[in-house]
Design brief:
The chain is an alpha+beta fold and 138 residues long. The chain has helices at 13-21, 34-42, 86-96, 113-117; strands spanning 4-7, 46-52, 55-64, 69-77, 103-105. Strands 1-2-3-4-5 form a 5-stranded mixed sheet. Helix 1 crosses helix 2. Pfam families: Acetyltransf_10 (PF13673).
Length: 138
């Protein structure tokens, strides 16, 4: 099996949705909201993708300033390709695109927390989330 990796290659919303549906990440994303999903992929400024021929089989979707912080919003690998090093490679390629002082930051799915520890990520408990519909200070 030959997997090709690309940086900022075009990915359609439908390809993105199909990949998330066939990975464990789909259950935590608004797959039914095509406009939101299209916006997620279109407005990411660093997308590393893995392809088996013309099939999208992995993605590392990030928002970054390339110098200080890179938020790895989505890391997904198709179920049929998991446990083969694709997720690790997507993260490594992402890291090569960042400046030497840039941190790679992510929020792990509960079942994936042990995965990141063995890749040398440091656990940080200081994450806060403001849900849609909530106003600052109300």
């Amino acid at each position: 099996m030959t997997i090709d990796y690309s940086i900022n290659a075009p990915v359609t919303a439908d390809q993105f949705i199909d990949l998330l549906e066939s990975s464990t990440l789909g259950e935590r994303r608004p797959l039914e909201d095509h406009i939101c999903m299209a916006g997620m992929i279109a407005n990411s400024n660093l997308v590393v993708s893995a392809w088996d021929g013309s099939s999208l089989i992995g993605i590392a979707r990030s928002v970054t300033d390339f110098h200080y912080a890179c938020y790895l919003s989505d890391l997904a690998v198709h179920r049929d390709y998991q446990q083969s090093g694709i997720g690790k490679r997507l993260q490594a390629i992402t890291q090569t695109q960042l400046g030497p002082r840039c941190k790679l930051i992510l929020i792990a799915a509960p079942e994936a927390s042990t995965y990141y520890a063995h890749l040398k990520y440091t656990h940080n408990e200081r994450c806060w989330v403001l849900e849609p519909g909530k106003s600052i200070g109300d």
